[in-house]
Amino acid sequence: EAQVTQNPRYLITVTGKKLTVTCSQNMNHEYMSWYRQDPGLGLRQIYYSMNVEVTDKGDVPEGYKVSRKEKRNFPLILESPSPNQTSLYFCASRSSGAPTDTQYFGPGTRLTVL
Amino acid sequence: RKEVEQDPGPFNVPEGATVAFNCTYSNSASQSFFWYRQDCRKEPKLLMSVYSSGNEDGRFTAQLNRASQYISLLIRDSKLSDSATYLCVVKGDNFNKFYFGSGTKLNVKP
Please, is B80 exposed, middle or buried when counting C-beta atoms within 10 Å of its C-beta (0-12, 13-18, 19+)? Predict the structure, then answer.
């Protein structure tokens, strides 16, 4: 089954404790992206990657890091989480060649930073 | 100014009603346009892409007006299962950046 998986699905942590949210896709997609969703603000793009070792900032990259060492994986790293990073996070992937630009989203990770 | 703006709703309609959502975008160089559906904080799923000529998929019709920079979604004969939040999405002139509206909530009542 074609899918995007994220782990963990729920996480409660404390300020300053480094964490990583994993994202993996089995569709051989070149493009992957991370979003955060906050009430009234919609989804905002954090980082995206066009292919292995190629990443770029989205609209809200501050406080986040990413890496793309393998095509299927695109982890999101919070080196020193703060309460304003409490949010619902989605990973997405798409094929660069897809004419419809359809993005497939993971199930989401609900993060709370105390 | 937000890249994509939508009326947050909620739109409360009876079953069988026709309902229309609009969305405006700020960048005239935007490349592609979409409607996604999101159920109760689950992951967004593509409902339909929006083409310049307009397109229809069953009870759903999407229109794009580039001159006025707005996108619309029409749902005919609403079903209870249509209750969800509808997200307007625009791909910017950077082919890798996507901008989401904050969503319009639809409640279809029996």
Answer: exposed
pLDDT at B7 over 80: yes
Q: Collapsing DSSP states into helix, strand and coil, what is residue B74?
A: strand
pLDDT per position as a tens digit, B31-47: 789 999 999 879 999 99
**How many Cα atoms sit within 13 Å of A65 on the Cβ side?**
9
Assess A41–B contact: CB distance below 8 Å, yes or no.
Answer: yes
Q: Do A88 and B41 touch (CB under 8 A)?
A: yes
Structure tokens at A24: 């993996």
Cis bond upstream, residue A99 (ω within 30): no
| Spans in chain A with pLDDT lower than 70 | 97-100
**What pLDDT, on the 0 to 100 scale, is given for residue B29?**
87
- Cβ separation A45–B98 shorter than 8 A: yes
Query: In Å, how far is B15's CA from the nearest CA of chain A?
Result: 27
The shortest C-alpha distance from A104 to chain B (Å) reads 7
Residue A98 pLDDT? 55
Binary contact (B100, A44; C-beta < 8 A)? yes
Burial tier of A34 (Cβ tally within 10 Å: 0-12, 13-18, 19+): buried
All residues of chain B having their beta carbon less than 8 Å from the beta carbon of residue A107 are: 42-43
Q: How far apart are the first and last CA of chain A?
A: 36
| CB of B18 closer than 8 Å to CB of B106 | no
